[in-house]
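Quick one before lunch.
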Amino acid sequence: MKEVKKQIREFKEEGASGILFTGGEPTLYEGLPEAIEYCVSEGLEPRMISNAQKLSVEAYAKILAASGITNVNLSLYSYKKEVQERLTRTPGSFEKSLKGIENTLKYLGHANINIAITSLNIDHLSDTVKFIHHKYPQIHHFVFNYLLIVGTATKNLFVVPKLVDAELELKKTAHFLKKHNITFRMERVPLCYMGGFEECSTETRQIVKDQPYLLYLLRKKRIEKAKVRGEDKFHEYSKADICKSCFLTTICAGLDPRYARVMGTKELYPVFKNPKTIISKIHSS
Ligand code: SF4
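Model of the iron/sulfur cluster complex:
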């Protein structure tokens, strides 16, 4: 804990305004509540991304609430128990996730939902969002992450949906959320697949806002630090020749390189829309 506190102080001295506890799974770290408390005492905003499993224990949710954390993103992949448990490879995780969300809302008073987009849940993504909204109307923000082709996904490529197959459900989901004034972000989806909700692209927002930020990576007990600007962050992303004629090319990151390596870039198509409209929506939201 001494080392963690020292690190938190150093982040503060570097100009950080908050600390994101993510993973792996941050709740597996026993010292998490104390680390969060320390962030709060140092005036840094603590945030956390969790699978919600440990928060299903009421006593733990109370401890985390008392630590002072207010910004929590919880993962839920599907309203279908069998899909959730297949994706998490943990029997019983569906009920625990729901209980964890419930406890978080009850004791922390706030929760956002993270959904990884895979071929197992994409066909009912909009229904999953509707299920969450009806069950937990207090939830006002969603984050969708297009599955990264890393780790086990590289050996199970069937789990990675093609963009063309995801397009309709992405649109239905965005339409539902907008209709209910629920904010959301989508990561690793190029703008040609986000027609009508381009301002919700995480990458585009970072490019448009071009806010430099510090990124700390814990590698083999060593902290590596990098200063990243929005536009630099995506220099490895892939584009197709067709992107040269696309009006949105300056504000679109393109395809995640790992996706492009496996699936190619043939799914991309140019968009002839004025980027200024999207930029002004980003600045006003
Ligand atoms: S065609 Fe290329 S630049 Fe245009 S929206 Fe698609 S990925 Fe982005």
